[in-house]
What does this fold into?
Amino acid sequence: CGAPGMNAGGNQIYTLVRVNGKLYGTIYFHLESGSPIASGQTIVAGQTIGRVGTSGNSSGPHLHAEVIYLGSQSISEYISSWNGSLTYNTGYSYANRCDFNGNNAPCRMDPGKAFGYN
It folds into this structure.
């Protein structure tokens, strides 16, 4: 939660999931402290993993969610070479967005599309 260099996002939870042979990471920002899950724990759909808060650089309670397409490697392969950031090499420019770069991993996805809201 609020790791050094990531304080603007406040308390955060990172998850990894494989869907149809593709690996994705999600990051949830600005959470309350005291996550109900431990680092490294396997989670299941519908499980509470955090609570909306206003930690970090936030003007009020909300959830900031990001989805990162990471490629086709397995979760264990990704973890073995992880550098500590799901967003490494994705930046914030449009060139690093999956919609603009042809889904070349790693890239940032539109969360609305990833969660089926667009």
Remarks:
- The CA atoms of residues 50 and 82 lie 23 Å apart.
- Residues 75-80 form the longest helix (6 residues).
